[in-house]
Amino acid sequence: MKHKAVILGCNYYIGLSTIRCLGIYGIHTVAVDYSAEQAYGARSKYCSEHLIAPHYKEEKKKFIRFLIDYASRQSLPPVLIPCHDAYVEIIDEHLAELRQYYLIPQTKQGLYTEVMNKDTLHLVAVQNGVPVPETVRPGEEHFFEKIENIIHYPCIVKPVDSPAFVAYFRRKLFKVHNREELTRALNEAERAGLEVIVQRIIPGFDDHMYTFDAYLNQDSKVTHWVSCRKLRQYPINFGASVYTEHHQVPELLEIGGEFLERIQWKGFAEIEFKKDADTGQFYLIEVNVRITNLNVLLHQVGMNIPYITYCELTGHEAVPPFSLQQSQNRVFRYAYEDLLAIRDYIRTGQLSPAQVVRSLFRPKASAIWDWNDPQPAFAYMGIVLGKILKKVRRG
């Protein structure tokens, strides 16, 4: 396999799982980071090269030049795989230019951003008949009346641009319980120069959160898909997956698959849904347009997204279409944050210790640990211990 795979962002386990998914097939993997300090994914035995690039945001032009210069020196165009939203935004902004040098699934410039942007995603979903939570935008006429009569408290204040919001506030959203808290959240977002929307909270515990994970070929047809159900998130209630099971739900193919085909999506996408505990209806919450937290679980149940992407774009032997008829008794676990989540679920009375213990005795797809490739886990433990020591010294 002569085409290289350039993987953007290996200071998180998503990049690590991507390297492993490709490296096991002997594919030359190139980890690209802006710093080597915490890039534990590049410590994998499956990582062929590790490059330090200019910072994707602080030196954007130099970063793009770096990518182009690297690809220009290769005998064949590499496959470009982003593992963080910020990298996706930059690829979308320079899609036409980068596609001259790299193999990238998406061909329509702006579609990545349109789907990542919560405001435009809401409009696109409504236009295609996909249910979304009721939403009100700051500045609308009778804004607070709509909050009280349509949205109701508590509600959530969500960013339009998630990567920028998370980078600034270190959280995904604000949950507010009254007009005073809502006003405070809106003011904080305005001071940060970040656009937000306000949404109704769909009733249901965290295990009512589902994902539809799919790959669409260059004809925008779903060829591979699975679905999963979150069991725990961190931060709890409105966070990222830390303990999630494979749970096959055919209805999600009807809703999510048809939606992605209608908007002519190409490549991988993960749609997050919440199932209304009162009505049973699935509501589209957001779409992740790059390799996600659950990649290692998808791989273990039979769907290797990075490899599927690589094979289609390079013309290598095609990976047969894939779906599962039954749920597999396997869960994804990010142990470090799952322990923090367990602490908070128990503190708030949302889970009992007995419920947590019962949940743990299942085959696991671990976010970082791999018996056949242990070095990244050791590097990660060193990073965590370093953070702990810093806190101890400050205290």
Strand content: 15-25%
Number of helices, where a helix is a run of at least 4 consecutive DSSP H or I residues: 15
Q: What does the largest sheet look like?
A: 7 strands, mixed
Radius of gyration: 21 Å
Unreliably modeled segments: none
CATH homologous superfamily grouping of the largest domain: ATP-grasp fold, B domain
This entry's quaternary arrangement is single chain
Could you characterize what this model shows?
This protein has 395 residues and is of the alpha/beta class. The chain has three domains: 5-104, Rossmann fold, CATH 3.40.50.720; 134-200, Dna Ligase, domain 1, CATH 3.30.1490; 206-362, D-amino Acid Aminotransferase, Chain A, domain 1, CATH 3.30.470. Helices cover 38% and strands 21% of the residues. It contains 15 helices and 15 strands. The protein has helices at 13-23, 60-72, 85-93, 95-98, 111-116, 118-127, 143-151, 162-169, 179-191, 250-262, 295-300, 305-314, 335-347, 353-359, 375-394; strands spanning 5-8, 29-33, 49-52, 79-82, 135-136, 155-159, 174-176, 196-200, 209-216, 222-234, 240-246, 267-275, 282-288, 331-333, 364-366. The strands form three sheets. A seven-stranded mixed beta sheet has the order 13-12-9-10-11-14-15, sandwiched between helices. It is globular, with a radius of gyration of 21 Å. The termini are far apart.
